[in-house]
Amino acid sequence: MNPYLDKLHSYPFEKLRLLFEQVKPNPEYKAISLGMGEPKHPTPKFIQQALVDNLDGLAVYPTTIGTPELRGAIANWLERRYNLPKVNPATQVLPVNGSREALFALAQAVIDKDAKSVVVSPNPFYQIYEGAAYLAGAEPYFVNSDPARNFGCDYDSIPPEVWQRVALLFVCSPGNPTGAVLSLTEWENLFALSERYNFIIAADECYSEIYHGEQPPLGAMEAAHQLGLATVDHPYARLIVFSSLSKRSNVPGMRSGFVAGDADVLKKFLLYRTYHGGAMSATVQAASVAAWNDETHVEQNRAQYRAKFNAITPLLKEVLDVELPDAGFYLWADVSRTGLSDTEFAQRLYAEYNVTVLPGSYLAREAHGVNPGANRIRMALVAETAEGLEAARRIVQFCKTLHP
């Protein structure tokens, strides 16, 4: 067996299952889960219809590079969304089976196993980043998010001897679980480091379309363009962006996303994926074209999240240290004032009020002497507003039993 498999940690939800294994939730309450970040808003009817109308696509083998129609729709969306100059759909865009699969696969394609490479990851983080690093034969290096920096990471704290070994840097903006969005200044610093030390930036932007202010989150390709780094001779050098329809269009089961950016990297990544078997069904591709070409359903989806967060966040602020995030559908709450750790809070809330939240320490690793997820919980506000409000009321009631 691959010895790197022994380095993998249990997934957060397996840890949660073990935490709840001996707990019987209060039967007086209907179960409500805020634990998993799975979109629960209905899938738009026109996307469902597009799947039905293209079922003949099931009778053909899809190509890894995808159809010209899908690559064109994605390129056009990138240009509209981020005010970019012409994105070449033939060389700068590649459809993928969801951003999760592609985030993992990119590490396998770009890391030299014999180079003792380092993969930089934010902490807390999406666990795929860590697993991708280990299984590519690299060592993850965690940079803790700092509440004083709007949960940004201090990349300047990384020693030069570490930077010299870095092959890949994962960035999640908007962040999971913090919801933080990188600023133009932060992107400028990362691009300068990438140029100096010659590593690839993997920008995970799958939460980009769920935001709570009027200004859309800044994207990595957009930042490169604004900084004058998207040069004609080598556009988006060492930058690969990942996005997905799962959250934007409420279709997590379609497993439809894309990667875009550096054409030289994507050429090699396409070669890898041809062998890896990462082709998207033609039926799903046709439905994806319909989804990327429509913004009305995205605006309606975003409005639902905004209304939900605006109703729920003030309730929870009564008892927890929590703020409205820049973007995303998570609340990242500090439970320290309850006197309970994050795991104790989650376990007792489940036992007494049948509400599931995810302990923040499960989403992070101890690095530089601390676990930045400790004493925090992640709440995924993915269900309808009424269910989210009921969960919030129970959390408030639970906290008040701890400190009347």
TrEMBL record:
Its EC number is 2.6.1.17. The keyword Signal does not apply. It is an enzyme of class 2 (transferase). It comes from the Bacteria. One of its GO terms (biological process) is lysine biosynthetic process via diaminopimelate. Keywords: Aminotransferase, Transferase. Transmembrane segments: none annotated. Residues 31-381 form the Aminotransferase class I/classII large domain. Its cofactor is pyridoxal 5'-phosphate. GO terms for molecular function: pyridoxal phosphate binding; succinyldiaminopimelate transaminase activity. PANTHER family: AMINO ACID AMINOTRANSFERASE, L-GLUTAMINE--4-(METHYLSULFANYL)-2-OXOBUTANOATE AMINOTRANSFERASE. This is Succinyldiaminopimelate transaminase. It comes from Duganella callida.
